[in-house]
Amino acid sequence: MSTQKISEDIRDDVSADVIIVGAGVSGTSTLLRLLEEQRTGATGTDRLRVAVIDRSDDMFTGLPYGSRSGGASLIVTSLDEFLPDGIRQDFIAWLEARKERILAADASLGISPHWAEEHAEEIRGGQWDSLFIPRRLFGHFLRGRVEDILASTSDVEVIRITGEASALRRMGTAARAGAAARADGGADAGAEGGIEILVAAQGALPGNATADGGIRSAADGTDDARRGMTRVRGRSVVLAVGSPPTRMLGHDPANAGSGRFLDDTHVHGMDHLLQEARAAIRAMPEGASRDILVVGANADALELLHATVRAGLERAWDHHVTILATHGIPDAWTVHPDRRSEYRSRHLADYAARTPDAKLTARAVYDAVVRDVDDAMASGFCEQDTVDELKELCSQLLERLPAPEQKLYVDVYGTKVGRFARPTGGDYQRTASELLESGRVHAERGHFEHAENSAAGWRVTTSTEEGISTLERTFGVIINCAGFENVAETRDGFLRSLQDESGLRSSTSRTGFEVDEHFQAAPGVFVAGPLLAGNLNSALRVWHLESCRRILAMADTIGAEIAAHLRATELEPV
């Protein structure tokens, strides 16, 4: 396996059959399927060359499962719900082989000793399916899986490229790729045609960015090498870059007052974020607020609270921690008795029982879900008790919706229904429930509007259906866990360039890229992972895609589609 890297002193162009942009779960699982396609001869290529581009050195783990996740970060479902059966059994075998190292919280694994101590009995008994496993363990497994397969494969070369993808462009009409053109065992680097990804070395200004923060056209004629760019050429590209950046929240500049705004929980990882928050609180001038506001009540906020407790930081809290959430704190943050087996839908079941010729609508499905959840909670159930039954009924009704209503469900109501089915439980849920019950964490319902910085800290304006108001407290630190931008309005340079320069279209829900039934956003340009959100066609019905189980399942199909594309383009123009 080649381990070539792009750094500031390497400017050689690279050529490959397939370029994968993003080495997280979606990119890595697509690569694994593609390697299987090559093993069976399905790619039509004697020697497959794959270039994998990622901005991090942490290849084949991705942000959630690599070193940037915190040592206390866990998967958000139990293992039996996290992975499909085949790979889950492989992962369990991997865990069993490392059981003693896990129990000892071996430093090389990077996991929290607290987790190993709390779950020692389940670990020794091999009860992995019920556990919420540390994310880094799955990252180690996934990377090892790639390395093991490549070590036993002679007809594949993978080039690992560390850098920032900045633009995609067509290279013109493809030349026919005969055996002579592939004598080096890979794609013809000199051939005209195909697809090209421009990659900026780590620390370099992305090639489509200007010094004043603008976006330069990828076709403006500027020499790529002079701009610190490397060209990576291939016959097909897989866009597997994960979700867009965290949604920006409006606030005054830091120098306008003493408050500190931590605007992205993902760039440097959870452990680094905790260090920043602790340092910011300690640095607050006398008389300034030392309270913390967390904006959002999603998985990031849960992970933040859990990591804080695991690091022992909450014991030193001499301030208030407030969670601001549009719909208030989710019911799933509180531990309840499990009554799923007792729950039965009323409103959605009645709607599903309508005659086959009844005119069903996406809005009516959503309204029935809301009424069912409201009634359930008024009757002593919790939101999570309703999930299994309502999910099954929604799935049945979706099949019966007319095509325009299916599209409306995918674009609008699927995500709204999903709000009642958040996967929360285990360690994260217990931590959040204890913090809320003890009063160490407080909740505010509302939508963040703006934060004004002053000598005393942040004054935060929020909105609800009742109108605009200002939170009573002033905050020294605000941590943004508000979720991701949508693709159509993202500030990410590469995603922006794909739409503005390369002609890719966002899905009508604006949450991903529009693809056809072959997962292509353009000829030879495949999409994998969360960027498939908002698609409805003969092969796809996706309104939201963060589930590792679904990403892995789709990767099998995407890998097969790429293999078919390679066969079709072997002797044809790209």
Offer a quick outline of the entry.
The chain is α/β, with parallel strands linked by helices and 574 residues long.
What does this structure look like?
- The two termini are 27 Å apart.
- This protein has 16 helices and 20 strands.
- By secondary structure, the chain is an alpha/beta fold.
- The model is unreliable at 1-10, 173-192 and 205-221 (pLDDT under 50).
- The protein is globular and about 65 Å long.
- The relative contact order is 0.15.
- It has a six-stranded mixed sheet, with helices on one face.
Keywords:
6-stranded mixed beta sheet, 574 residues, alpha/beta
Count of extended strands? 20
SS-based class: alpha/beta
**Strand arrangement across the biggest beta sheet:** 4-3-2-8-18-17
Give the low-pLDDT segments: 1-10, 173-192, 205-221
Task: Sum up the overall morphology in one term.
Answer: globular
Helix content: 25-40%
Task: Give the arrangement of secondary structure elements.
Blueprint: E1 14-15, E2 18-21, H1 25-39, E3 48-54, H2 79-82, H3 85-97, H4 99-103, H5 113-118, H6 120-124, H7 135-151, E4 156-162, E5 164-170, E6 195-200, E7 229-234, E8 236-239, E9 260-262, H8 270-282, E10 292-295, H9 299-310, E11 321-325, H10 347-352, H11 362-378, H12 383-400, H13 403-418, H14 426-438, E12 441-445, E13 447-454, E14 457-464, E15 467-470, E16 477-480, H15 493-500, E17 520-522, E18 525-527, E19 535-536, E20 541-542, H16 548-569
Parallel strand pairs: 1-7, 2-3, 2-8, 3-4, 8-18, 9-16, 10-11, 10-16, 11-12
Antiparallel strand pairs: 5-6, 6-7, 13-14, 14-15, 17-18, 19-20
